[in-house]
């Protein structure tokens, strides 16, 4: 219907143009052959000129009406180009971030990169990344934050991870400035007021380590769906790299430790002892080695079974770990034989 109407308008516009051309030709001819004092021809000429002027006016109005949809299409095209340019820039930044974290060799580098890209791409007023590991010496650790003075002094030591709904449910949460009284536990450790809209994304590394990315916008700004999706994309990319790094470290750790006693195995003993011997020769310090062979271990295995023997080996390894210093190294050489390396320890002290 619209195409038919547009076709009719174009035909009428063409007819108007033809009529206007004929009028101009007739006026020109009359003007050349116009006798003096002929009032009728003067009036006819004036009518032709007036009709031509009106025809030009109608033609202009029709052309404007026809070009109006084209103007709207041009404006829509410019807006689409701008949106495409912004999205292209966002995709390029995501690709840059992905390549950065994939090339990282340590988890701290990934956390720092995530913090930088999030606060620059989302125009954040504040950002903090916290991990929680119940088996670690410090259960809650700060991995990255922006700005540097975002956290209150000694605030993490007072933080209770059980009060964080994001960690407890392992689900992202949006905290509005005038929202629910149940807030994220991280907010108590921040120096910024609660007037900032917050968005919290939790994720897990391995079996026990929980991470929380807590982001704050500037006042009077809101977390749109586009911002939330972009934040999730960055966090998911970092999570994948952290998981890969964790699995690699776990595999390396398993290849160097004995699965029963959790001490270093014989394979790692050769590598670590070469390093300790080189350090001892370089600094001119003492290095003592202790070889331990458990007596009557075979009799225990034969009398009480291998389960009892394994329990005895694990108990002995626990005693060794509690006794040694942090710089000492303990290895399971094989069976019921163990080796202990004591750096910077002379023979008399080792005995």
Gross geometry: elongated
CATH class bucket of the largest domain: Alpha Beta
The total domain count is 3
CATH topology of the largest domain: Beta-Lactamase
The average pLDDT is: 78
Architecture of the largest domain, CATH level 2? Answer: 2-Layer Sandwich
Instruction: Compute the number of helices.
Output: 9
Describe this structure in words.
- By secondary structure, this protein is an alpha+beta fold.
- The protein folds into 3 domains: about 1-80; about 105-255, GAF domain (Beta-Lactamase); about 265-350, 2-Layer Sandwich (Alpha-Beta Plaits), CATH 3.30.70.
- Helix content is about 55%, strand content about 15%.
- It contains 9 helices and 8 strands.
- It has helices at about 1-30, 40-100, 105-120, 165-170, 225-255, 265-285, 295-305, 305-325, 345-350; strands at about 125-130, 140-145, 175, 200-205, 210-215, 285-295, 330-335, 335-345.
- The strands form 2 sheets. The chain has a 5-stranded antiparallel sheet with strand order 2-1-5-4-3. It has a 3-stranded antiparallel sheet with strand order 6-8-7, covered by helices on one side.
- Strand 7 and strand 8 form a beta hairpin.
- Helix 2 (about 40-100) packs antiparallel against helix 3 (about 105-120).
- The longest helix is centred in the N-terminal third of the chain and has 64 residues, at about 40-100.
- The protein is elongated and about 140 Å long.
- It starts with a helix and ends with a helix.
């Amino acid at each position: 219907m619209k195409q038919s109407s547009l076709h009719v308008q174009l035909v009428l516009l063409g007819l108007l143009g033809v009529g206007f051309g004929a009028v101009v030709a007739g006026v020109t001819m009359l003007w050349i052959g116009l006798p003096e004092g002929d009032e009728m021809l003067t009036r006819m000429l004036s009518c032709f000129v007036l009709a031509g002027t009106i025809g030009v006016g109608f033609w202009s109005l029709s052309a404007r009406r026809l070009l109006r949809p084209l103007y709207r299409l041009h404006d829509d095209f410019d807006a689409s180009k701008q949106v495409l340019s912004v999205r292209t820039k966002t995709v390029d930044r995501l690709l840059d971030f992905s390549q950065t974290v994939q090339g990282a060799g340590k988890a701290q580098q990934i956390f720092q990169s995530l913090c930088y890209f999030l606060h620059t791409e989302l125009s954040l007023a504040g950002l903090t990344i916290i991990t929680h590991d119940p088996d670690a010496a410090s259960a809650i650790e700060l991995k990255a934050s922006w700005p540097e003075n975002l956290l209150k002094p000694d605030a993490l030591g007072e933080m209770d991870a059980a009060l964080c709904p994001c960690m407890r449910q392992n689900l992202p949460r949006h905290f509005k400035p005038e929202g629910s009284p149940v807030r994220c536990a991280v907010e108590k450790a921040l120096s910024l007021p609660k007037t900032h809209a917050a968005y919290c994304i939790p994720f897990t590394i391995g079996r026990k380590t929980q991470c929380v990315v807590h982001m704050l916008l500037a006042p009077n700004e809101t977390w749109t769906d586009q911002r939330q999706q972009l934040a999730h994309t960055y966090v998911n990319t970092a999570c994948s790299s952290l998981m890969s790094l964790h699995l690699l470290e776990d595999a390396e750790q398993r290849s160097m430790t004995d699965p029963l006693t959790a001490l270093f195995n014989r394979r790692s003993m050769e590598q670590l002892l070469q390093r300790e011997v080189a350090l001892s020769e370089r600094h001119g310090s003492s290095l003592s080695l202790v070889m331990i062979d458990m007596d009557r271990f075979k009799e225990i295995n034969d009398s009480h079974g291998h389960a009892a023997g394994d329990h005895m080996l694990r108990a002995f390894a626990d005693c060794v770990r509690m006794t040694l210093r942090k710089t000492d190294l303990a290895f399971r050489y094989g069976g019921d034989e163990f080796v202990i390396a004591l750096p910077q320890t002379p023979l008399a002290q080792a005995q």
